[in-house]
């Protein structure tokens, strides 16, 4: 007996061979939150708990073919972008997103949790000028805020001006993630029409946080695909990623991943 398909979410990102971030984290998050995850792989990384040993971009035509294959036949209720690596891939994805009516969550991935570059320096301007205007929501961490705007955020009071600078680049909403500041983990959602929402959670003493940014962006995309409005989608995603951080576990000799399956175990 045929069942109704769940909401469909497409992730456009790199593959993490260690399974903690990238495409792997995105699909685990989508499954946990009850949507059907689909993928466009932009790059393959050799990656483990100690860092990124190398990455190889896919040709733009391979990215384009994956995207159109899914969107033209299956359709999407939301799209999430992550690691895009190069100018050519950023341009390609921005062009493809121009034809999509569904909400787009852009995680402007610049470096890995270990500090390894995942976006060519010369591609930052392209991401700023061509991809961010396509975004329904952009989800930069503080390093990415500085990379995109030149603004260094050192305290919570500086997050709103940074959000305003990002909004001027074109996204409808911006979620500035304050996870690298001291105190509680505070994130600011700001909208183009002056909206402002703060989300706070306890800071857990757990170093195993690999995949946090990918997980949060994918969780927001999943909630948007289910029909949530942006403030509620971010609140639900924040709750999910907070639980995942709390349950983060050791793998290998370095930084382990967050626990994407924590909801199934409580």
UniProtKB/TrEMBL annotation:
**What CDD domains does the annotation carry?**
HMPP_kinase (cd01169)
Q: Which InterPro entries match?
A: HMP/HMP-P_kinase_dom (IPR004399), PM/HMP-P_kinase-1 (IPR013749), Ribokinase-like (IPR029056)
Q: Which Pfam families match?
A: Phos_pyr_kin
Q: Which UniProt keywords apply?
A: ATP-binding, Kinase, Nucleotide-binding, Thiamine biosynthesis, Transferase
One Gene Ontology molecular-function label = hydroxymethylpyrimidine kinase activity
Which pathway does it take part in? Cofactor biosynthesis; thiamine diphosphate biosynthesis; 4-amino-2-methyl-5-diphosphomethylpyrimidine from 5-amino-1-(5-phospho-D-ribosyl)imidazole: step 3/3
Which parts of the sequence belong to the Pyridoxamine kinase/Phosphomethylpyrimidine kinase domain? 16-259
Signal peptide location: none
What Gene Ontology terms describe where this protein resides (cellular component)?
cytosol
Coiled coil region boundaries:
none
Q: Which GO terms describe its biological process?
A: thiamine biosynthetic process; thiamine diphosphate biosynthetic process
The superkingdom listed in its UniProt entry is Bacteria
Q: Which reaction does it catalyse?
A: 4-amino-2-methyl-5-(phosphooxymethyl)pyrimidine + ATP = 4-amino-2-methyl-5-(diphosphooxymethyl)pyrimidine + ADP; 4-amino-5-hydroxymethyl-2-methylpyrimidine + ATP = 4-amino-2-methyl-5-(phosphooxymethyl)pyrimidine + ADP + H(+)
NCBIfam families per UniProt = HMP-P_kinase (TIGR00097)
Function per UniProt: Catalyzes the phosphorylation of hydroxymethylpyrimidine phosphate (HMP-P) to HMP-PP, and of HMP to HMP-P.
What name does this protein carry? Bifunctional hydroxymethylpyrimidine kinase/phosphomethylpyrimidine kinase
Q: Which organism is it from?
A: Streptomyces tateyamensis
């Amino acid at each position: 007996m045929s069942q109704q398909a769940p909401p469909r979410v497409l992730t456009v990102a790199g593959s993490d061979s260690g399974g903690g971030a990238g495409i792997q984290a995105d699909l685990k998050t989508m499954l946990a939150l009850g949507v059907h995850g689909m993928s466009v792989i932009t790059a393959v990384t050799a990656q483990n708990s100690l860092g990124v040993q190398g990455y190889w971009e896919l040709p733009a035509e391979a990215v384009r073919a994956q995207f159109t294959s899914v969107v033209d036949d299956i359709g999407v209720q939301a799209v999430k972008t992550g690691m895009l690596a190069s100018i050519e891939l950023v341009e390609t994805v921005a062009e493809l997103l121009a034809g999509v009516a569904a909400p787009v969550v852009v995680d402007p991935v610049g470096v890995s949790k270990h500090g390894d570059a995942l976006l060519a320096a010369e591609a930052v301007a392209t991401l700023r000028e061509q991809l961010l205007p396509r975004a329904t929501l952009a989800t930069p961490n503080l390093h990415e805020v500085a990379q995109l705007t030149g603004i260094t955020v050192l305290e919570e009071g500086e997050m709103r001006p940074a959000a305003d600078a990002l909004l001027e680049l074109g996204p409808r909403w911006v979620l500035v993630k304050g996870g690298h500041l001291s105190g509680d983990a505070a994130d600011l959602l700001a909208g183009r029409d002056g909206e402002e929402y703060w989300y706070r959670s306890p800071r857990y003493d757990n170093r195993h946080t690999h995949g946090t940014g990918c997980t949060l962006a994918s969780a927001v995309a999943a909630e948007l695909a289910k029909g949530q409005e942006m403030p509620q989608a971010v609140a639900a995603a924040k709750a999910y990623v907070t639980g995942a951080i709390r349950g983060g576990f050791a793998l290998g000799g370095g930084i382990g991943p967050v626990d994407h399956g924590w909801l199934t175990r409580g």
